[in-house]
Each structure stands twice: as C-alpha cells, then as structure tokens.
Amino acid sequence: MKLVKLLANLGYGSRKEAQRMIRAGAVTDDSGRVLAGDDAPPHECIRVRGEPLDPPSPLVLVLNKPDGYTCSREDPGDTIYDLLPQRFACRNPGLNPIGRLDKDTTGLLLLTDDGKLLHRIIHPKSGCLKVYHATLARPLDGNEAALFASGTLMLQGETKPLLPAPLEVLGPDEALVTLHEGRYHQVRRMFAAAGNHVLTLHRISIGGLRLPDDLAEGDWRPLTAAELAAVFQ
User: Fold this and answer.
1) Considering the entire predicted model, what is its pTM?
2) Which residues form the catalytic set?
3) Are 200 and 106 in contact (CB under 8 A)?
C-alpha cells in the first residue's frame, strides 16, 4: 500500500493532508530516515512525528467506559470517541462498539473495525456471555433468580420472551446478571419487571474476557491476540 493511502486510512488526514505531512518530513522510519510517498515500509517501522504509527486494520480496542458517555457519534454530549485520539474517528474502515453500553452503564467495551468479528461476538449463538454487576434501589425480593432464569420473562412492549439469564446475588441490593443476548436497556428493564430499579450497572466481562484490572476508567488500549481468543472461551 502507498504510504499516503495508509496514513489517510488510519485517520491522519485526507490524502492531500497526508501528502503534505510526508513532504514536510513528518513521516520517518524507526531509524529517523524521512520517508517518501512510495510503498510503505513494514507498519511497525513507521513513525509520525516520532511516534509509532497507529495499529493497522483489523483493530480491536478494549475500553473501560465511564459513566455519562454514549456509544454513538450522532449523540449530543460526551461520547466514547472523545476518549480516543481524534484521528480514530477518521479511520477507514471505521471503529464501532461491539455491543453498545447505555450512557449510564460503565465497564468493559470492545470496539473494532472488523465487521465480521463484531457480528460474530454479538450474535446470540456465539456463546459470548456478558456479565453485569448491578446495584439496586431496594433489596432483592428473592424471586428474581427464578424469574430471570425462567425463559418466560417478557419485557414491556415486546412479544418475545427473554432467554434465561442467570442471576447471582452478591448482597441485599446487588447482583451479577449474565446475558446471552443484548436487548435495549435489558438488565434495567429486567429489574423493572421485577419491581426494582437499577442504580448502577457495570459490565465486567464478555465471554472469557474480563475487564483488565490495570485499565483505569476512561482508558483504552489494543486488545492482545490472547485476550481476543479469551472472548470466545
């Protein structure tokens, strides 16, 4: 791939802007040699203003989503894309969340530019269970686990019952809920159907991947190959 096209695809600017960066000497190899606009050297050898080039496509990121951020570029206010380098919004192909989290839901969020991978993870048949930690407005009644696991719970406004969703009680007003699917505001609506209200909701795992302990709220990094494999375990 031509260097100018590579830079444009990674969001560093339009092709004209990438060409100007190259002509200005802002693009070098790892030895400091200024690169021209011909065929790109190995990706890991390229530097832009002295910094390593962003990871190539296909890319998967893990983000510890904070409260108050939405997962759509179209929404007003703060979005998850504000937590990433601005150029990431211009990548081609673009980055999309693998299963959105609500504005008031925190925790593990994956993003990718690989459409096939995205659909593979979110499809109910993938086996990639999602586990959420919920704190509630009032104590649990004790019948929620049976209700959620029944496979008969119907959410308001829907005609198809939910798949069984195991619940593990952690305390009088907190629990873990495991989902096989991802309907709109599902955990919150499930507890509403049980006569309760979710105060906080935090996703802690997708498949066999847990939110990394060393990833602070609002931070992100590329997912390793081993971590991606863990999603399907």
Assistant:
1) 0.91
2) 102
3) yes
d(CA 96, CA 19): 27
Domain 129-206 = CATH 3.30.70.1560: yes
Q: Do domains 3-52 and 129-206 have the same CATH topology?
A: no
Class of domain 3-52: alpha beta
Of 54-63, 118-127, 198-207, the one with minimum mean pLDDT is: 118-127
Q: What is the mean pLDDT of residues 101-126?
A: 93
Please identify, in words, the CATH class of the domain defined by 60-124+208-231.
alpha beta
What pLDDT score was predicted for residue 173?
A: 98
Looking at residue 124, its pLDDT comes to 77
Q: Which residues contact 65 (CB under 8 A, 6 or more apart)?
A: 71, 80, 101, 105, 106, 107, 108, 109
User: Which of 149, 141, 133 lies closest to 198 in space, CA to CA?
Assistant: 133
Tokens 């100007």, located at residue: 20
Domain residue spans in the chain? 3-52, 60-124+208-231, 129-206
